[in-house]
Protein 1
Amino acid sequence: MFQINENYLKLPGSYLFSTIGKKVKEYANAHKDKEIIRLGIGDVTLPLAPVVIQALHSAVDEMGKAETFKGYAPELGYEFLRRAIVDHDYKKRGAAIEIDEVFISDGAKSDSGNIGDIFGLENKVAVCDPVYPVYIDSNAMSGRTGNYVEAAGKWDKVIYMPCTAETNFAPELPKETPDMIYLCFPNNPTGSTITKPELQKWVDYALKVGAVIIYDAAYEAYISEDDVPHTIYECKGAEACAIELRSFSKNAGFTGTRLGFTVVPKALTCNGVSLNSLWARRHGTKFNGAPYIIQKAGAAIYTEEGQKQTKEQVAYYMNNAKVIYNGLKAAGYSVSGGVNAPYIWLKTPDKMTSWEFFDFLLEKANVVGTPGSGFGPSGEGYFRLTAFGSYENTKKAMERIQSI
Amino acid sequence: MFQINENYLKLPGSYLFSTIGKKVKEYANAHKDKEIIRLGIGDVTLPLAPVVIQALHSAVDEMGKAETFKGYAPELGYEFLRRAIVDHDYKKRGAAIEIDEVFISDGAKSDSGNIGDIFGLENKVAVCDPVYPVYIDSNAMSGRTGNYVEAAGKWDKVIYMPCTAETNFAPELPKETPDMIYLCFPNNPTGSTITKPELQKWVDYALKVGAVIIYDAAYEAYISEDDVPHTIYECKGAEACAIELRSFSKNAGFTGTRLGFTVVPKALTCNGVSLNSLWARRHGTKFNGAPYIIQKAGAAIYTEEGQKQTKEQVAYYMNNAKVIYNGLKAAGYSVSGGVNAPYIWLKTPDKMTSWEFFDFLLEKANVVGTPGSGFGPSGEGYFRLTAFGSYENTKKAMERIQSI
């Protein structure tokens, strides 16, 4: 009799967004006169930039003619896109990444879920707390996290690195030595980030203890301050200890268009084995490339016009972030994030739990956000609002919160 | 110190298509006057059908307007596509598959590589020999195949089911009991298939021994004979023992457009756990949906016009298959496949090895095919030609082979 992967049975239910959806639906049904504003989920709302639309149309036309039709893509991705990435995202930042170190994919979620494939199951994993759930869940599925302890809301083999007001929302070097360290800066969900000297400390630490850093830079485009690194490869030695995940979802609105990439430097080795070659083998065996037309759309973002148009989108969302940040401050809340990220992280007032505040905000202001406890135990007592709504709704939401 | 997944180190080099590429390049450089015809790789050449192009343009326009822009897709895929699939591919065939049993993906290669995630590592795997390499390699990566024995060209924990002239290119029920059985009909690489009563025997066997069948039906559109099943769910009881993988690559030319789906029936359980829920969890954690515009393109294939246009493409390739089949027969070869599949499988003449025949064909006819031994030890002494070239080249290739 065949057996299933028993690790799946250890996963607690993934109820966060379904519970939110259910609660909002119930409230809406009971209060049909109320207009609800959703600032909960991290999905974009602006349409794709004109330069992207144009590239898509043009690539679609190519697919309709025998002379320009494209079949299977090169396994790593088309060179026109990998070269644009290397030139723009790395060379300009002083990072010596080469095009055969860049792997095009269908998005950072797939890559962050799949990257564990090339690592041993005995590796000890360290994550920030609160955290993007995919890092934990994908490791739980492969059996790397031990057992889930319901009372603590934690896995017993995972090293949790609290990121709270006490740590300035940044992780501290863990006491127990990890093998795989997941870092995400600018951070989802807290919206905070760290400076280049602070990130360098993590690189130095990883090199010292022989850990690999899985660095999620999906929100890189939202960085507004000078001393914040755009890529971990700005740090010395990172090419020997770090893998970087990047996404087109938030910098260009590709959440429903799907494109991302992962950088695995050739200098990153374990007992002489190059992780670049392992990921190439994984990529070539369990993946068959991102669509040609989507890769053309991705390349359009790197043109002069593409940079201008996508920067305008980011600026629009970041203006929303400012409205939320200032609005909450004016209403007396303790607020962080929102300066280098589209997420605003607030301390719930009057010692409310995250879920109590969710209900409070829904009832009193008809505004939907995300309870911090949904991202991990150290998220309890916090709450996330996103800047991805429209300006009009964002402004209205703040007026309502201020008048509670 | 972090460790890698050591199973990757057991994989033999994946040299088949790179060796072919190298040999062809060398020959072409040495004989610049020769016009080489490539009938080796299974990639399509006809452009996307007009109805698909139209759907793509229209969906791109939707993505460019705020009112119709689409962010994250539903995790299982858009209902418009899943409903079209259920109605057309299953209901019409008398298979009671429901829309929440269909999972849209970026292609059958990803799904066939990733499906192992939800199964235990101790499961015993059975594959046809010769075989599509992804089934084996993905299981090797997770540690399910034991060690690779170079001399035999086999993994020591895998059950190989020879498909040769002696077995009429169909597998026989294995002597050792497997837990996971990979079947692909119509078959890649042999181009052969089995009848519905023959497939029913496999379903009955799987139900009896408690095995799960991973059924790859990527070439379903090429079936021309009446008694050949288009889906395994035409067989009684299959919903309790089989997962089906489907692709848009070969029926609609989506090799570079990327779309596929997997059916995991809710009736398929292991000790009371539904595999549908496990795959839903995997899909929701390590994947984030196929692009909206590509899902719209997929749905267009199911319209009346879409069916007509894609059937014309399949007919074009199947005419090539006939040209190859008849051409080889006329030249005195032992040939199979090509009737319900775009692949023609021939016995090498004069006891040549697959690679010897590769060199022979390249030199004498300037035609490129794929050595059967590249697909497994029982592929030795066989050779694959594909019907995906142009009619003109296919015809010319046969004239050359006949005049050797």
Note: Chain B touches chain A through 79 residues (CB under 8 Å).
Protein 2
Amino acid sequence: MKTDKLYYGAAYYDEYMPYERVETDFKLMREAGFNLIRIAESTWSTWEKREGEFDFTSLDRMLDGAEKYGLSVIVGTPTYAVPTWLVKLDPKVLTVNHNGQNLYGPRQNMDIVNPTYRKYAGRMIEKLTEHVADRPCVVGYQIDNETKAYDTCSEYAQKDFVGRLKKKYPDPDAFNHEFGLDYWSNRVDDWDCFPDIRQTINMSLAAEYEKYQRQIVNEFFEWQAGLIGKYKREDQFLTHNFDYDWIDQSLGYHPDIDQYAAARHLTVAGCDIYHQCQDNLTGKEIVMGGNIARSLKGTEQPNYLVLETNAQGLTAWLSYPGQLRLNAYAHIANGANCVEYWHWHSIHNAIETYWKGVLSHDLTPGQTYRECSVIGNEFARIGKHIKNMKKSNRVGVLLSNEALTGMKQFPTKSAGSHSYNVVMRWLTDVLYDMNIEYDMMGVADHDFSKYECVILPPLYSATEELLKELDEYVAGGGNLIAAYRSGFSNEILKVYPDTQPHILNRALGIRYDQFTYPEGVTVEYGGKSSAAREWMELVTPVTAETLSPYTHHTWGKYSAVTLNSYGKGHAMYLATMFGGDTLREIYRRFFDEIGLAYDDSAPVSIRRGVNDDGNEVIFYLNYSKDEIKFTHNGESGVSLLDEKNVGKGGELCLPPWGVCIVEIRK
Amino acid sequence: MKTDKLYYGAAYYDEYMPYERVETDFKLMREAGFNLIRIAESTWSTWEKREGEFDFTSLDRMLDGAEKYGLSVIVGTPTYAVPTWLVKLDPKVLTVNHNGQNLYGPRQNMDIVNPTYRKYAGRMIEKLTEHVADRPCVVGYQIDNETKAYDTCSEYAQKDFVGRLKKKYPDPDAFNHEFGLDYWSNRVDDWDCFPDIRQTINMSLAAEYEKYQRQIVNEFFEWQAGLIGKYKREDQFLTHNFDYDWIDQSLGYHPDIDQYAAARHLTVAGCDIYHQCQDNLTGKEIVMGGNIARSLKGTEQPNYLVLETNAQGLTAWLSYPGQLRLNAYAHIANGANCVEYWHWHSIHNAIETYWKGVLSHDLTPGQTYRECSVIGNEFARIGKHIKNMKKSNRVGVLLSNEALTGMKQFPTKSAGSHSYNVVMRWLTDVLYDMNIEYDMMGVADHDFSKYECVILPPLYSATEELLKELDEYVAGGGNLIAAYRSGFSNEILKVYPDTQPHILNRALGIRYDQFTYPEGVTVEYGGKSSAAREWMELVTPVTAETLSPYTHHTWGKYSAVTLNSYGKGHAMYLATMFGGDTLREIYRRFFDEIGLAYDDSAPVSIRRGVNDDGNEVIFYLNYSKDEIKFTHNGESGVSLLDEKNVGKGGELCLPPWGVCIVEIRK
Amino acid sequence: MKTDKLYYGAAYYDEYMPYERVETDFKLMREAGFNLIRIAESTWSTWEKREGEFDFTSLDRMLDGAEKYGLSVIVGTPTYAVPTWLVKLDPKVLTVNHNGQNLYGPRQNMDIVNPTYRKYAGRMIEKLTEHVADRPCVVGYQIDNETKAYDTCSEYAQKDFVGRLKKKYPDPDAFNHEFGLDYWSNRVDDWDCFPDIRQTINMSLAAEYEKYQRQIVNEFFEWQAGLIGKYKREDQFLTHNFDYDWIDQSLGYHPDIDQYAAARHLTVAGCDIYHQCQDNLTGKEIVMGGNIARSLKGTEQPNYLVLETNAQGLTAWLSYPGQLRLNAYAHIANGANCVEYWHWHSIHNAIETYWKGVLSHDLTPGQTYRECSVIGNEFARIGKHIKNMKKSNRVGVLLSNEALTGMKQFPTKSAGSHSYNVVMRWLTDVLYDMNIEYDMMGVADHDFSKYECVILPPLYSATEELLKELDEYVAGGGNLIAAYRSGFSNEILKVYPDTQPHILNRALGIRYDQFTYPEGVTVEYGGKSSAAREWMELVTPVTAETLSPYTHHTWGKYSAVTLNSYGKGHAMYLATMFGGDTLREIYRRFFDEIGLAYDDSAPVSIRRGVNDDGNEVIFYLNYSKDEIKFTHNGESGVSLLDEKNVGKGGELCLPPWGVCIVEIRK
């Protein structure tokens, strides 16, 4: 969604405050260049203290304040945390999951298909939307918050699941055969005997249940979008804050939601990107997460909203001076039109007391507020040149929930449930290091033809149709990089019983039928050497060239990396995982081969896009604690932050964690 | 409580014996100088095999034996382990806690507010007390054993808790506001909708529930004291064996009981101190634990009973020769009037088979018995000179259950639920290393005016009254050492929403509003350098002097340690944790500044006190496996163990793990 | 059981196949020299899709195929995995164990004493046996699969357990005394008050319950043997695939089954041996596991069946070329008459998808099939010379379920539930390294008189009768090696209350009453030195010679290893655990002392036996990745694989992972 300005804001919770501060806070916001707040998404019990008693006093106070101080407002539906009275009314609102019965307390502990929950949540959504729809400050709505099915295994959910299976497989024999349920006597020949799903040892069934859980999430979005749609103005948008798989920070695509499907119910995609800071800040999460968000509504609607990101964040995450500003521009450089912090003020009670906001607990302007103030006022000044950034990337990365689930059900050596995203990040982080920008694609929405190169993180689970399409893409002149385990199983995790990688073996020009964990094995290329890890397939080239064999006393006759010419295109296969430095050398060879240019000589991160005026804008981002000098790699332009001219090939200098943005004016 | 002799004894369990041994054992005890046994605290089912059938045969056998062999007896109430028939009668006697429903087997698994438990336990207490009260050998009673609420979350307890909350907060709005329950829709506007407490994400509520659990423990003490009081003789004392937070050994103050409140129901404080031995023996647990016990009845009644400590103990704990004797004197040096082992004989079945007593499983005198025999006979000989030791310490350490709970609910980087005690031990272990003796104080019983220096382990949770009192203490000439996070939140863990440390910032002369975990940060002072760990606040001095800034490329402008002159006193702040050697240098600076003398040149541990005759007694304790020579630091006196004279400045020599006690006779 | 040929085969699952392949597969098998399949043991739901509807179509297809292609068939009873309809019929079929209520999904999750399970499982067994008994290809039956009680703690089991206790102990006082139940008030004076066993803290009771669980396993074997016996032909054998305690591979004797008792219901013992490969392949698991299996039916019936072992196995286990063949001969060298892989084909769905068979998922001959083909055809050629191998070992190792349970209930420092088997493996792996072959013995079946040397892994729990018998064995000229903790407790884990090791102290010539964990302690012998670990007893020699004292500043006066002459024999005691190299030096001393010859100079593994023709056969096995040259240590003979003559003292050369078998023809 295009916007007429950059949004800069914070989540705001009047109801959490130790004392009334709306005027004070909004004044501070305006002074710092904030122009947006997000409210309401967690406070059902505040506005419906007892069943049916609605009181929007505090909501009105915030809206009045917002209008007074010129802040736009996103209103979230308060449905991800349920009131105590609702649980008293129907204890089954708290769901049962793989770990047993939930108790009250945490958010996101309810059964999203429980009828009681739906009835009262629906009423709340309507009351709220109706109440705020006419307020001028309200620019949009956020459906719920980081929505999932929370692993619901309730009786409602399981019954629904079996009903859908029954419809999909009218013939129980076909069902048992396809899912391999003769194994360990797990057959179901009478649907009424379908057992509790929670300890199934059949990964096809487990994966099917995870897919079901993603489907009810989609239906949940559709339901909320419908209710809000009854009241919302035409000019108000509908968004959602999608989040990510997580290892200490945003890691990769989320296993529990099909974001591409869910985003169909939205006007604009939003996301929550959290990352480490201090010496661990790299900017990689901002690009990875942003690239997913940018792809959710298709390449024609690339701009997205960062609805949550670190202010001070967790205790370990406190930023060094300069880092917040660097990150803000990194989001914009990637196509975001909004940078919104979670959250404005630090909270004085409860579990997120140490997830700090723009203001510390003393609620007075401190170091973080001062840095935000710089950002906010710069955004106001130069925002028109850098909003609605449009990308023309030549590399596309295919994301698949089914493959991700497959890699979770059958993980590699040590990466566990992150076995998919760890490879995805390996493949894309090296692109980042080489200043190659890339797009993401969902399986249902992909268009390979847009890209000179398509990258497959382990496409463990895929339909034959998709595999054939990839084959045709290469044959027709496309260039493919495929990671290990791609093409191994079908859409329900049944292994394809023929030559691996199934179908893809032709384009890749290889075959294998054995694999193991690498122990004492290395991969060498271009003068770099690194340990193989996680997984290794004993690949034999058929028509492919071996770029790197395994270095090992016994496995040395097999290939670790192969490159094949197939039809008009090229296909590279990575049969194991190894160091990023070695992969970078291999990428260089591949991209040189296919003639895809990149600038990995630069000591800074470079992002490019085209702005509303059709001008190219280049962002130089210094992700280091040292001052860096480098050469401008583009036509003459204007440095937007200091309004100086930058000549073609001109020298630039960035302070630690510094930023320079050059607009090439036509 | 003063005593007319040193007690030396062991817990005794006639009912666990593989064959009848009372005469044999008591004779061995008398020969070894034992004069005390503790009996009865775990054997309800022995004396009430079936409901209402009381049989005290074995009890009488022990009492008869004790009288024959001149042993004093402490009778414990057998209420911490329930009989099988009681659980059959009311299964709810086994409590529900945060981990779910308890099953039968372990001790301390019952619901102490269950009415059935109270009814039958009360009857047992009365029957037992009535039966033994007139026996001359019975000198006192022990209430229960290491009593807690065992995390009861039973329906009885939760209902009681909500009832008390309701009384405390007649206005639900005030309750919701104070506890911040709007957060994540957790409001309770109808007390009947109060949810199960066990998964609350509101740490204020969780802490309040822990406080409730400590309150019912206090009430449990009051109840038992009342029942015993119906029968006990005037000259019989009432005690309890308080224990400690635990990491492989006694660590610090216990989170689950307010020992100061519970001790009000007792005649004399008792404690269970367990510690590692062999190369890991330091004596620090004996001082830490003993100092807590010594403070429980106030400084006017300093003497306490060590009711349990290592005999052979756990497999890893077997003492080297000499260590048991060293420890026995260390207890006495600290103010104990009793050293009692757990336990006399090793047990032949069940979970504590490998927690060995004075006798090994062969039940014949071995190495441990022989060493005890030395101790017992020495105690008999010199006990009158070293009992009822009185201390005049100039340093006081403030202990707070609320702060401890706060640090458990919001732990630092890696110390988890021990985040409070780890700092408390850091602060006090360095005192120990410097031969500075110190007292403990409870929040409800403190008297700062007694001390030249008051030390605050992280006083995370504190009322404004307490913080103001600390401010006045410094202003009036007191000297304060405060650890990080002190003054951060109020008594229900709501963060104070103004300058940190709340109120204390004035006396400390500092402020901060940001903190993080230290990574690659060091603290340097007096030629020592060590890594900062667990927590670091970015402290800016206001009126204070920076003793040590952080050594770090970015955080170097903030202070790790500050010293402030305030009114007539001084206040030092430790904004992070670091190595003991560095802290020792900082302590030297501080104690020199305030003129508090100490003797940290000695290669041995030194303890001082005043005995019944008003004479100073100095204990020299060699906590090492090497022989040590050193100089007597006191007036001329008599070495009590070998009855030799020791001149002022005289040379002394201790063998490995050796002891020398000098009485300075007036 | 003697056989007329070597069996070589694989488990086969027609019902798991993605498409019909019986003909294809059996043809491939025959070509590769396979002559055996095992079928049916996991597919109850396939043949009884709905209660009472039996359909053996797929079974018949397999039997027809087997007969066409000349394969023998072992039919397993399909009772270790229950159908969904059975659980719907009686949810209690899924058992309750120490972790709570089982859900459907995994195998081996049922209550083997549940009457519903027994009723329907019994009917299935009879239907199946009746159906196949007359088929010529069916050579035998396998009862169930790796059977245990699966820790059942169901109401049926617990009631049964209490009933048996009541019968065993008519006097509750005697029961309480023997089990030490006065401890922590755990007495049971009314059998109706017997509490849930699951959280007992009384290890005697816990061990008794484990013994009960093993008893019902025995009864389960008896029950199945009886049902099969109604139908089976005289010439058909009855076997079972016993498995092993496990740490990443087969580790040692299994704690949950008395294999010696269970084997009484069988014609021939079988076993499942799984082990690591690649650089971690040592052959030790094949010998350890095989030696147990060889002993189960007594030394007169030594030959056993390896019913399952690695084909490709788990991902980490993929063999190097040559390893499969080496292992196949290692099994035969040890006395096996059958090598059967688990399994023929890799599975395309569910939890064992990555436990790969002879064929990979592509179901075409690959590297593994080709190597099997070599083995199968060699077996066909030379099998008659190496089947029915008979051993005359002079060393016997005593295995005890009770001792194993005791070491699990009271583990040593870090070995946890494996505390017994870790020592057993330490003691026997060094024998393996020295090329000393040994037998195993069960407590109920032992005959010490057969052996020149008896080795006791920690005989923690033993009757006085057994200890006396060991005493007499040594006195009469036997030679004993006893590990620490032997003789410590009686048959219900009650510690013997006199000099340790109980009774054995006389033969060993030592005593001790203290023990600890070794820290900084080493054991030195014969120029080797290694750290003591897990456990150390402070042993004082009485009549024994100290072979090695502890090397330590304080414990140095105690003995780590002692050797005693007693009557006509010798007894060695190992009071701690230490490095294998050091133990090997000590073994050398001991075996030299007692005159037991061995060949530990060889750089290869050597196995010896006598074949059907009464000829000695020597197997040379190269467990390394290097070529090895060595000298034939035997009379002149014929190398069976290449049919060359090998002279006495002749030079031999083995390639990496190579094998040479020399038959010394009379």
Note: The two ends of chain B are 24 Å apart (CA to CA).
Protein 3
Amino acid sequence: MSSICRVFVLRMGHRPVRDHRVTAHVGLVARAFGADGIYLEEHVEESIIRTLRKVTEVWGGNFEVNTVYNPIGFIKSWKKLGGIVVHLTMYGINIAERPSLLTELRERCGSILVVVGGEKMPREVFDLADYNVAIGNQPHSEVAALAVFLDRFFEGRELVREFKGAKLKVIPSERGKIVKRVTENEA
Amino acid sequence: MSSICRVFVLRMGHRPVRDHRVTAHVGLVARAFGADGIYLEEHVEESIIRTLRKVTEVWGGNFEVNTVYNPIGFIKSWKKLGGIVVHLTMYGINIAERPSLLTELRERCGSILVVVGGEKMPREVFDLADYNVAIGNQPHSEVAALAVFLDRFFEGRELVREFKGAKLKVIPSERGKIVKRVTENEA
């Protein structure tokens, strides 16, 4: 994989209140599974943005949280700047049926924008996307689709990476809940 | 993998209203990623159960949706009957650091209960579980944890499996949204 490969997530179709937790989960998954940042729609609840920034402050890493006013316009600019757009949708090409897709993506790389949404994505997203990718062709969840896509894209390496500057760190354990406070020297 | 390997999901810690969408996503993911059924707590909204049954009716498969009154008691019975309990938690053994865990699970197999919850899982679950497994040790989402666990457990085969008796089927496409109505002869 090219060392300059950066992955961002664009979360569309957020419905205030109803999608509060799901959008927060999309953001947490983006961070935990190795994305560099997330773009949320401007109308998302402030509390989601606060949660994501707080988690990054406590658990480390350089995860960026931003909002966009016009997601379609944003996708167009991304492409104009030479970025690649991957739209995760149950109607797309099944990732399990075309593994070459990931190899191709890793080779092209540069800046990848992974677009996820709910049921009603505008037609334009399907047209603008360089790849419409299905994590299986069954209805399920944008949270799950994003996690599995990133897990396969990064080949599992994202789950063992260090999050720089973390104040808290989990010590994996068979049966306990062990959280270590990281001192400044270690961070 | 033993052919009699059955996987069920137990979703704990559901908070009405607030977790409505997340619990629905946990259920949809369980089905789409190859679990045989889900156990929900008795106090979940009726509409979640209806949605999951409706999806199974339309998109196929034999996914079972049940509720339990006492999740801890249920876990104890599961173990008494010889079933294996896997608890997904960010505090557990990182699946990416111990891949042998999946091999071991596949060999033991039989009936696996995958327990997922929110932030505040009772201590007892950690003690009762045969395996406390982390999908990475960062905070993220029970929806994502379940999806990645099942994707790795079934080695991706779950994403191409047939859902018997489906009335609708997606025809994967580069750019479209193609859904085929399945006639009774084909189903």
Note: The CA atoms of residues 89 and 127 of chain B lie 12 Å apart.
